[in-house]
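Students often ask why inverse folding is considered easier than folding. One informal answer: many sequences map to the same fold, so there is more than one right answer. In these notes we will look at a single instance of the problem. The structure comes first.
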């Protein structure tokens, strides 16, 4: 929990995208105010799902901030966005997610 809102930024491996969307919806509904980012690492790519119920953190902006340094593509709305990129190293992914967390805390 940060400054009156909750956030969840997690990476998983080889999970069903539709199941992750449902999980993100369920978790976001439990949060009064917050956002969720799920990174799903597959054999040849990484897909991302972002859900938000905050005007301060739009799901589409969160996806863009993640995918830009990874040369990925994606988009969506202020409440739901998704995208993907080619497989990168765990270190690269962690670096991007850590930078996002730092930027959010500023």
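Output (designed amino acids):
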């Amino acid at each position: 929990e940060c400054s009156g809102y909750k956030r969840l930024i997690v990476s998983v491996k080889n999970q069903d995208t539709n199941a992750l969307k449902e999980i993100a919806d369920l978790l976001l509904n439990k949060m009064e105010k917050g956002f969720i980012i799920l990174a799903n690492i597959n054999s040849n790519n990484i897909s991302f799902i972002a859900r938000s119920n905050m005007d301060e953190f739009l799901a589409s902006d969160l996806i863009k901030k993640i995918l830009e340094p990874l040369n990925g593509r994606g988009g969506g709305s202020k409440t739901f966005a998704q995208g993907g990129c080619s497989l990168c190293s765990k270190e690269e992914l962690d670096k991007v997610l850590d930078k996002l967390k730092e930027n959010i805390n500023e």
